[in-house]
Each structure stands twice: as C-alpha cells, then as structure tokens.
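Form P-L/3: holo structure prediction, ligand fe (ii) ion.
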Amino acid sequence: MTAITGHISAIKRPGELGVHSLDHHALIAPDLARAAEFYGSFGLDTKTVGNQLELYTPGNAHCWARIGEAGKKQLYYLSFGAYAEDMPAFRKRLADLGVELLPAPKGFESNGLWFRDPDGLLIEIRAAEKTSPTEKAPFACPSSGPNERGALPRKRTPVARPRRFSHLAMYCRDMDRSIAFYEKALGLRLADRAESIICFLYGIHGSDHHMLALITSNGSGLHHSSWDMGSVQNIGLGAMEMSRKGHKRGWGLGRHVLGSNYFHYVRDPWGSYAEYTADMDYVPVDRDWKTEFHDGEDSFYLWAGDPPDDFARNFEAE
Ligand SMILES: [Fe+2]
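OUTPUT (holo model):
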C-alpha cells in the first residue's frame, strides 16, 4: 500500500466504507502529440514522463490523468483514492464479493488493489490524499459597480484554466449491474438516475454530486472528463480559446439538471469530450443525497443549444 504515515482523516464519514476520490484515470491515445496539444490547449499542464503524458491543473502537483500511446483511443483504467486505514477493509470487501485481484498493469505499476468492473474496465483502489472537494467548490459571478466596465478587452483578459478535475463519465453495458458493483465494491452512492440512460454516483466522504457518471452503451469507454472552472465567465473563455485553436466541435454553453452544473463540452480528436464545468451540486460528508429517478428528456439539460447527434456515441465500442 502507499504509505501515508501519520495522516489523520479530517473529512471522513465514520463507520462506513467508501472511496473518497477519483484519484486519476488513464487513457490510451493513438497519438500522444495530439493529446498533448488538445489537453494543453484546454488549459491543463502536460508533462511527458517516460512514454506517457501526464495531466495537471496549474499550481497543483497532483497527476489527474495518464495517457499512454497505442493504436486506438481507449479508457484504460480508473484509480480511486481511499483512506490508508481503510485499505484492509477494501481488500476484505473485494474478497467477500468474489472480485479477483490482479497485478498492476505494465507501465502503470503501483501498490493499490487492482481488479476489473463488470464491463472489464481496470479499476484501482489506492491509499491516497483526498482530492475530491471537502466543501462546495466556490463559484463566482462577478459584476461591475455603477460607472465601471464589467468586461476587459480581449487582449487584456487572461486565459482561463481549470482549477481541478471534477468527474468522469463513461459507458457501461448494464446500468443496474454497474450501479450495484460500484456501490458494493467501492462504496459509491447513487445520486440521481435518468431511466437507464445515465446515472450519477458520489462519494460518502464529501463529494460533488457525481465523481462518476455511467451511460448505457454496448461496451465500456470514455464519454468525457470534466474540469472545474469556477465561473460561467471562465467556461466561456475556455471554450473560446479552444475554438480559436481549432477545437470547434462540442456542445455548450448550457446548464445540466442533474448536478446543476454549467457546462461546455469540447470534442477531443477521438470522439470523446473534455468538459468545462462550474457550480456542481455538492453532497457533504454528514449527509446523503436524496436519490431521485427522472424522465430522460426532462432531466438532461435545463438550457443549451441542441446537442450533437452523436453526443452519446461510443466510438471505443465500434
Ligand atoms: Fe460532466
């Protein structure tokens, strides 16, 4: 296990077992140079380590994503963070569920617990610092006073960059089966569900409304990674910068119903998306979200333009 000696968990729900964060995720991309250009333009710091690309948010040493190079874009694994003192209980939980433990994948060595989800996606639970927010993320809606200009000229407006990773949305084959797995094995909880189209899972130790979203498809795959911008203004600035650099395809500006977050999705070179997000609902450590089941049409988005026709097409399963 990763040693976090002397770490005392300040934010922890007592007496219950659950991961606290989606620590990082790993992708395979056909072209690392294109991945570096896309995520760098998106506002992330990129670092080449060996034959992998790592993604960071400015001023934060935490690696949010690792990208390896191979023939076809693929969501490779999810690594969830847990409190170090809970790792023996997770090992027992997985054994009780009959989940087979696996060696760490080559090139991504670590000492966490590795296994596969019902669709065969590699999952890790590792001892790690909590990287999910411990309170509702600040949201700014600045305005100007009388006789003051509210907007700077473009040249004097700084480029907006993500503050942190927010959540990941991925495809699954059987939503009921996947919800049961992520609840039982990892201790995530269902926040909201829209028919069998999409559902949203949060962590019990203080979490955004979702750290993981599941979309029904014919196999696993990445739909989007999402990055917190802190304001609608910064979402707009990020989207404009991506458009200026040629990444014009996507969807937004809009506001979701489930999670309540403002969004703008930018399509990556392989048909999945990176999402700028702000002001997502928050589930505090001492409360559970009131789970609701929704009509799909009525809960997808509150306002936005029409989504692309292939917005939920799983290119990884083709
Ligand atoms: Fe999202």
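COMMENT: The chain has two domains: 21-127, 162-317.
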